[in-house]
Amino acid sequence: MRMTDNNKDNKLEEQLEKKISRRNFIQGTGLTVGGFIIGGSIGAFINPNLEESTEKVETVTEQPEPAEPKEMPDYTEAMQFFTRKEDFEALAAATEVIFPEDDLGPGAIGLGAPYFIDKQLAGPWGSNVDDYRVRPFTNGQTPLSRGDIMLQGVRKLNEISQERHDDTFNALAEEDQIALLQEFESGDIKMSLVTSGEFFALLRQLTLEGCYCDPLYGGNKNMEGWKMKEFPGAYMSYIDVVESKEFVKKEPISLSDHM
Amino acid sequence: MAKKLDKVDVVTVGVGWMGGIVAAELTKAGFNVVGLDKGKEKNLKDYLHTHDELRYTHRGGGTQSLKSESYTVRNTLDDEAVPIRDQGMAVVGEGVGGGGSHWGAQTHRYYPYDFEIRSKTIEKYGEDKIPENMTLQDWGITYDELEPHFDMFEQMAGISGEPDPNYPERSNPYPNPPLKKNEGIRMFEKVVKEMGYKPFMIPTGTVSQAYTNPDGEKLNACQYCAFCTPNYCEYGAKADPVVTVIPTAQKTGKFNLRTHAKVIRVLHENGKATGVLYQDTRTGEEFEQPADLVVLTSFVFNNVRLLLLSEIGEPYNPETGTGVIGKNFTDHHFGTSTTGLFDDQKFNNYATTGAYGMSFTDYTGDLFDHSNLNFLHGGEIEIRFSGNAPIATNLTSPDTPQWGKEFKKQSLFYHNRALSLVSQKATLPYKDYYLDLDPTYKDENGDPLIRITWDYSENDMEIHKFIQAKQIEILEKMGATHILPAPAAEHFSGGLAYQHNGGGAIMGVDSSNSAVNKYLQMWDMDNLFVCGASAFPHFGVTNPTTTAAALTYHATEGMIKYLKEGAGALV
């Protein structure tokens, strides 16, 4: 994230504008608000251009760029779940094969998917806290947590890469990486208490989540995933767009805009 | 030892749509109602940051945790059932409002044929048309009897829509006009009208304009923000028990809502319910809540499970076909869909609501001749916009790998170049398909989980083939570059996407083949009512809530009569 004082001031001004249009919105709907929608930050929710024309919707969401943005380090980019860097590197390389950088835009690594995955696995979902975990596990159901599956899977990627190519997965030629992931996908690689096909499905799902989730989770950095897909994110209203015959392209906004 | 509380007039088990309707109607009639819900309290303040695909679609935010309880599934009587373990696969509403908070709010009525399906089928085609193992039954109520109650639900929920030209006239118009039409809808409408069908905008509880319902509850106008299901509506623009019937009940001062209160038994003595035993899910403390009337208003699985655990009614036996509790279970998650990709046209598919689209019903019920068809009933066909969620939606032309360079390129290209046709189909009941208690898997209290025995039938597969051929024809006429018919799964996996399940405590005309009468009153226990889609003897074509709610409104009239006039069966 780049945030200069200049940009902060602009943000403040925007917030103020939004608070004003919130009142317009509520009046426009004919609703008495008394106690109905509560919460101090609601102003940030309302598309400031709710009552304006479609063309205008497109233009106003452009964020003013600071004159000379300073690069800030991203202190969230470190490991919460993985303990060995080589495991994380295999994971990162695999996500990039699934969703590679190209002339359309960044790949999984550029979008932050590997760090996103690390954070997801470190949380309750990674240890299946809300799942039914009572034994026995029969008929091919795995007793492993999502974290266990991912850890075993990425180590297996490195293990086979070492056996066949005498190198780690991230160092392999692209075609070898693709061929190996295809073997995992087809379920041909022997794993313990889970199939390689299940591991691959989880890896693919997590990669796509890391490319397209709200940036609040650490993936879809700078909403670049949404920009490539022309998905506008977390707007509160499209009532002015819905009937348009032409496609209306909108710069995306994220949930941080709602705070 | 459970702590015994003071007796009340009515206790409801679960406070979603059905519990909320019972609470509103019974408190308005002057009775004291206690609503017990095992989930958490929530209100509009919880809905404000809901535009989050990861949290709600993929991580089950807003659905029940399976940590302490799940359900098990098998396809045939000979299989060993396995539990559904992944919370993301089991969409069961959680907390006050239940599924009614995260539903898509599609609100068709069931058709006249549905309520008298056995008689009408025999009348037209003879008894031989019904396969031997299909346990098709009349509901014990007619469409005409239920019509005013459909209307009550629609007025309460502010339904926006226009009449389906294929079905009977309504006593009142929908309270709000239909939603606006987008370009995809306009294209669909033109083509299907040319083909001779009679399309109409899907009726929905995401309301088209600001609305105040007969109880004085206000709904806002839908903004087409697309985060409708499985999310919540931050505008209060979606009919939800939390913004309609629950506040209505609370305003009377006669409704006592308790959360984190999991009912573990219906208590009964000498053929009468005496109350319920419930547990505070946080402390494990147990309470006995005595009541004159006990109303089960939770999801299908829990309604049936509580009857079985409490030993009320005769459990269904799939070998002999005798008994009633668990009978005629139906799952309704087998949607038939086909997607068209349009290389030269982009659509604003990110702008939508939960049930946004246009439908026609020319292939439902007995509107078309089944003489030479090897299935009964049918399905509607709709163009539906589910919002282009970017994690879940990755469309490519046929035979493209599902990851890697070409996948990325195509899934980006087609993201806004697709239109989908979806069909909901009727699901008819079979002798072998039912609910009972699982012999192996238990909840955290040591009580057995509910077990589903169910699979797709030949009837399901035949409707699927018939309907998908029509979908393909429509997309061809609409000019799609590529057409992607979604293949049918071979077997039911047990995953739920939108809580369309029915049966298990079905309604009917006598106690030999149904659990409840037309007032949803247990034949075997006249002060116990079981409300919701658990009463459906079969699953009609469309979403269950409107019909379940209409039956519940009808049932509340029976409850009030029962409380005022004293003991006895209502029919």
TrEMBL record, chain A:
Keyword Transmembrane helix: yes
InterPro entries: Gluconate_2DH_su3
Pfam families per UniProt: Gluconate_2-dh3
Transmembrane regions: 25-46
UniProt keyword annotations, A-Z: Membrane, Transmembrane, Transmembrane helix
Protein's recorded name: Gluconate 2-dehydrogenase subunit 3 family protein
TrEMBL record, chain B:
Domain Glucose-methanol-choline oxidoreductase N-terminal: 217-332
Molecular functions per Gene Ontology: flavin adenine dinucleotide binding; oxidoreductase activity, acting on CH-OH group of donors
Family: Belongs to the GMC oxidoreductase family.
Taxonomy, superkingdom: Bacteria
Pfam families membership: GMC_oxred_C (PF05199), GMC_oxred_N (PF00732)
Record has Ligase as a keyword: no
SUPFAM superfamilies, A to Z: FAD-linked reductases, C-terminal domain, FAD/NAD(P)-binding domain
Protein name: GMC family oxidoreductase
UniProt entry tagged with the keyword Metal-binding: no
UniProt keyword annotations, A-Z: FAD, Flavoprotein, Oxidoreductase
Domain Glucose-methanol-choline oxidoreductase C-terminal per the UniProt entry, residue ranges: 435-551
Organism: Oceanobacillus halophilus
